[in-house]
Amino acid sequence: MMNRYFTALVSILLLIACSSDNINQNNPYLLDVNVSFTVNTSLPQYTSLNFPSDPVYVSNYGNGGIVIINTGSGYVAWDATDPNHIRNTDCTSMSINGLTLVCSCEDNTYDLFTGNFIKGDELEYTLYNYRVTEVGEGVLKVSNN
């Protein structure tokens, strides 16, 4: 009898542990674009990623470019388009201001470590997050698939 409970408990724990880490980030303001690219932190334009708290903007990916930052305990990557208003050609990407991303159209401000909004009126969505994995010595893969 005890063996059955143990087996059931282990089975449940395995199912929970094997669940996907894909977070559904449905946002009506962002396009659903496929992102997968690598960054070599030994290249001059990306060397600041070797140090915490020095974000890097990578253009031509995501909705409006992607910002990557070394948090000190790993890396995070965010879409550089404001997730709380309709995309338009006058305001496609935000700018890095210290450790925040700021929308020049509405002055919405987001924390680069957490992706949470820290300034703005009636904001619903946090920054769109991309997965960052280290695939080699100084090589990071940024993707959403």
Automatic annotation (TrEMBL):
Entry superkingdom: Bacteria
Signal peptide bounds: 1-23
Family annotation (PROSITE patterns): PROKAR_LIPOPROTEIN
Keywords, ordered alphabetically: Signal
Official protein name in the record: Ferredoxin subunit of nitrite reductase or a ring-hydroxylating dioxygenase
